[in-house]
Amino acid sequence: MKNRFIKKIIGITLGCLMLCSGVVVSAKDGGTSSNPGYIYYRSNGNLFKAAADGSGSIEIVPNYDSKRIIPAKKYVYYYAGQNSTTLLRVANDGSEKQGKRFAEDVVNVYADDNNIYYMTDEGKIYAAASDCASASDAKEIADMADVKNGNTWLAAMNGRVYYNSLKSGRIDYVTSVSADGTGKKYLAKGIVSSNYYLKKDSKSAYLMVNTKPQETRYSTKCMVMYSIKLSTGSAKAINSKKPIDHNAVSSGRWINGYYVYNSGIKNGSSNFNYNSGKAYALSTSGKTIKIYKKSAYEVANLGSNKIVFNDASGNSYAVTVKGNKVSAAKKISVKLTYHVRNLGGQDDKSNATLFSEYGIYSVNSQMKPKKLTGIEWDECWYDWYDDNTAVAGLFYINAGDNNYLYYATADGKTNIRVSTDKVTRTEDIDGVYYISQY
């Protein structure tokens, strides 16, 4: 997930938005020392993997020329080139120096704890065990995915695969099928654009569905929230009678049990004009709550019932949501805030992190900011919305230590070097790509 703009903040360029763990934090559950979490990055044209506990880095692929990788158990899947649809895979322990061809004509890939799923340009979806012996083990589990219109969204949850399909060959539907290819279900008329519009908890998943994907010129009231019962894969519309404007949803995001959106926001010269509109939140129970008198540029969790956000002027605030009521916005004493994030994915509520002109600040449940000191960087990466890989903290290239790659926890207490060698930038595609438990 790319961030909305690039801003120099004490030498910071917020990049691929992927994070990994701290010294003893794994990617999902707080972690163990045996699985510290890993970061994949490209330096001097080669792909490397570094452990977040500082135990060093290894070269995975020399002469790496791709932008997307998909770590899955003992392998890394990646495209043969920046514009290639050939999917390769290589061992993630450095034992293989050249990737082997896995599949052709691949337009999207997704991996969960067990399987690798990929979609081809013919609209077919295949599944195989992540560490299968070869691509011949892959099984076709679905067809008629909507590749014609570029709606190649793909996700997997609780043994079911979710994607956009063409029902009867022409009507867009959000669809799911079991990982073995059985039990196909049409869930909602429309499409999901990407996993940015997906949120899940232990029992349910929630999607923001575009019910009028054929309208690409004008922003209409077409966005409907759906809940999905993970145990059965059944879906239910939350706000079908009051769909939300497309731009309003596109300018917002999931937070706690809400989707925060900006009603009435207008397009600017190159992006949304956040000086227009007002911030609202739609709860997963279908309640609409006004959050602020202006649009919220970015939002983050804080505890179980607080929302932290900033506006177009760089002011940051926090509100408390209780029932269907919101407290008055309390201003946080951090000036010129450009980004408001959780450094542990969608469900991280431990603290909110503010990236400002004057540094990075961690905000606790009492809404008191604390500056993270001792960190110098030119670029940093973390994950703020991906539940599959997210843990708390950030990686950064430390300009104060000859451009070695470092890791810091969200509270700034841990700050360690993780790469064996300095990161050498020779091309635009050099840098960090993915943070993973594998």
Automatic annotation (TrEMBL):
Signal peptide residue numbers: 1-27
Keywords in alphabetical order: Signal
Protein name as annotated: DUF5050 domain-containing protein
Species of origin: Clostridium oryzae
Taxonomic classification: Bacteria, Bacillati, Bacillota, Clostridia, Eubacteriales
